[in-house]
Amino acid sequence: MSTERSHEEYYVPAQSWLPIFMATALFLTVFGAGSWINDMTAQVGTGTSRAIFIAGALLLAGTMYAWFSKVIRENHAGMYSPQLNRSFVWGMGWFIFSEVMFFAAFFGALYYVRNLAVPWLGGEGEKGISNLLWPNFEATWPLMNTPDSEQFPGPKEIIDPMHLPLLNTILLLSSSVTVHFAHTALKKENRQKLKMWLGLTILLGIAFLFFQVEEYIEAYQQLGLTLEAGIYGSTFFMLTGFHGMHVTLGAIILTVIWLRVMKGHFTPEKHFAFEAAAWYWHFVDVVWVGLYVFVYWM
Q1: Which domain-ending residue is among 55, 73, 91?
Q2: What is the pLDDT of residues 103-116, one digit of tens each?
Q3: Can you tell me the distance from the alpha carbon of 23 to that of 214, in angstroms, rounded to the nearest whole number?
Q4: What pLDDT, on a 0 to 100 scale, did the predictor assign at position 139?
Q5: Which residue from 70, 80, 99, 287 has the highest number of Cβ atoms inside 10 Å of its Cβ?
Q6: Helices (DSSP H) in the chain: which residue ranges?
């Protein structure tokens, strides 16, 4: 009777405290961030909530470093089978799909507000009776004059899409090209070009974040476009802010990949970590194109 196994070996790691640390870190980070925002809204001290958020963020960063370092060591030790590698591919695919649904919800909210709620308040459609709440309200988009303009004054101006948003679009689309060149260099085992193109991708991402901060400063200080500037301000910062968080995360991921490249990691045959980072970066770029069209132009 043959003793050969009919299935591939599937590596199962030893028990670890890392998942518990990760869950604790996520709870502290989210709880601290929520408390921090509520404290600022209530205009009370934010010291405790800020400390909770920082502690959670530090624990999260430390846990991720330890966990991913362990995964890298196990992979280099040859513990992972093709079956397990496929699970990494599927895991990253489902993660990106969840991010697609995340942004789809926000784009859906933008569509609902712009094409349904605001016209109803202006007297249009089957629910136009809502106009009785503010009979003098005129439905326009971007919403410069809110129904309750005393409590939520609309923005003075909107951001010029041909200024910083266009520059950021060029930067982010260029970064998609450079990360593709880096991937091509890796498959051709050209380490120098790999380092150069990947490093340039990271710099383009950082430049994008710099100009987004400049855009936010301009919006708050000159245009009156704030989180309190009605529903237009809320949706604008919700969509662009969450996208900025994803760009930040993507830049951190690419930086880690670049550091691994500098240490000689990855081969033309085995480099899924690089591919996963590139997938995520391309996804972030595609989302930005949607934002540029539907938030800044339409």
Answers
A1: 73
A2: 999 999 999 999 88
A3: 34
A4: 81
A5: 287
A6: 18-42, 47-76, 82-112, 118-121, 164-187, 191-218, 230-262, 272-291
Q: What pLDDT, on the 0 to 100 scale, is given for residue 252?
A: 93
pLDDT band at 98 (very low <50, low <70, confident <90, very high): very high
Quote the radius of gyration of the chain (alpha carbons, Å): 24
Please give the biggest Cα pair distance in the chain.
87
Residue 186 near residue 266 (C-beta atoms within 8 A): yes
pLDDT at 290 exceeding the cut of 90: yes
Q: Which two tokens stand for residue 65?
A: 């470093």
Calculate the dihedral angle through the C-alpha atoms of 75, 78, 83, 89, rounding to the nearest 10 degrees.
20
Four-residue CA torsion sign, 153, 159, 161, 166: negative
Using a 10 angstrom Cβ sphere, with 0-12 exposed, 13-18 middle and 19 or more buried, the burial of residue 232 is: buried
The structural domain count of the chain equals: 2
The two three-digit tokens of residue 91, written as one number = 């895991």
145, 154 Cβ separation under 8 angstroms: yes
What's the pLDDT score for residue 11? 74
Q: Which amino acid is at 258?
A: W
Nearest to 219 by CA among 279, 154, 134: 154
Where is the domain boundary, 73, 105, 139? 73
Q: Is residue 2 scored above 50 in pLDDT?
A: no
- Which has the minimum average pLDDT: 16-30, 141-155, 226-240? 141-155
Parent domain of 42: 16-73
What pLDDT sits at residue 8?
59
Model pTM above 0.70: yes
Residue 112, in any domain of the structure: no
Residue 202 DSSP symbol: H
For the record, the structure tokens of 216 come out as 């936010």
DSSP class per residue in 1-54: -----SS-----PPP-SHHHHHHHHHHHHHHHHHHHHHHHHHT---HHHHHHHH
Instruction: Give the residue from 218, 215, 195 showing the smallest Cα distance to 207.
Output: 215
